[in-house]
Amino acid sequence: MNAGRIYILAFALLTGCAATCPVCESAEAPVGQTPVEPAAARVAATLDPVAADFHKMRAASGAFGDGGVIVLTVGAEALTDGKKAGKWPDVELTDLWAHAIKEGSVLFNAPERRWGKTGPEETADIIGQTTIGPWQMTIQNVKHKYGPKYGVDPAWDDEAVYTFCRDNPKVQASMISDLIQENYDLLGKRSPYAIQCYFWLEAYAKREIGQGPWDKRVLPTAPDGDWKKLTPEMKADTGFYAKQLVCGSPTNHYGLLYWLAVTEKDAEIADLLRTWKNQYHRAWDAKSGTTIRTAQPGNFAIGEEDLKYLAAFPAEHARVLGILKQLAGERAPKG
């Protein structure tokens, strides 16, 4: 039994899905294919929103292989446990999966690397950070902010932290759910600034990164592969992480809007589009160490031309485009 099958079976037991359900049986189901599920599994999915999303997303995730199924399943298991405990009201499996794909899809099918560490020479991090797992949380955040309540001792050396995280994938998914919920609480659910905070909000707000075409690489190519040789101009001439996470990019067409369409979350698609359209500009405030809202419009509205990568999926593109057109005449609220 391969590792992917073990995780799939575990989630099947967790959600009430029959182990022979076609969604769980075949790791090679074609993208876009909708398997016929047993009645019991459909009922279980209806009662458990995470399970419902999992089944739809699993059927559309064939491009990410067995390793992708493992990561998606771990995220679903962690989210299910957290929701039962009253945690993460605004975080959904679509959020976890969109971030995992953008951050670490190259790790999905490398078992020896999937849950371990990646250094700046591999990730092209522009300040030399080492990160962990497919969600790419930094070692410092694990040690000092999000890890302690899950058993991480800040006094551990880095190798001990890496080992703990490697051996506890669900903890990685839980920590990242904490981070996403925190950003949504502070800056608004799925707002441009909340999503950008996942990557690097301060530098973006100061216009030090993300000032190039929105779909350009978010990380510049360092001279001689040395991040220390990056100039301020190189860092600034990069893409907008938050918009790529939502709309997709040249190398990853699977943005958050795609997964919301796959899971048929029309109201959430509309809420996201409204949030981006009505977002005010936020400026960096050194005193508080965060951004503050200004009276200036943010100019983040997502237009039809921004759905060019979503167009790779005709049904999902049509769904989002239809909602976008419905909202075209809405006026932004005052205040």
How would you describe what is shown here?
It is a single chain. This protein is mainly alpha-helical and 335 residues long. 50% of the residues lie in helices and 6% in strands. It is built from 17 helices and 5 strands. The chain has helices spanning 3-15, 22-25, 39-47, 49-59, 65-84, 93-104, 120-123, 139-146, 158-167, 169-187, 192-199, 201-205, 232-236, 241-247, 256-262, 266-278, 314-327, and strands spanning 117-118, 131-132, 137-138, 280-285, 290-297. It has a 3-stranded antiparallel beta sheet. A two-stranded antiparallel ribbon has the order 4-5. The longest helix is centred in the first third of the chain and has 20 residues, at 65-84. The protein is globular, with a radius of gyration of 20 Å.
Strand content: 5-15%
Succession of helices and strands: HHHHHHEHEEHHHHHHHHHEEH
Give me the secondary-structure category: mainly alpha
Main sheet summary: 3 strands, antiparallel
Whole-angstrom Rg: 20 Å
> Low-confidence parts, pLDDT < 50 over ≥5 residues?
1-37, 123-127
Shape: globular
Helix content: 40-55%
- What separation lies between the terminal Cα atoms? 58 Å
The number of helical runs is: 17
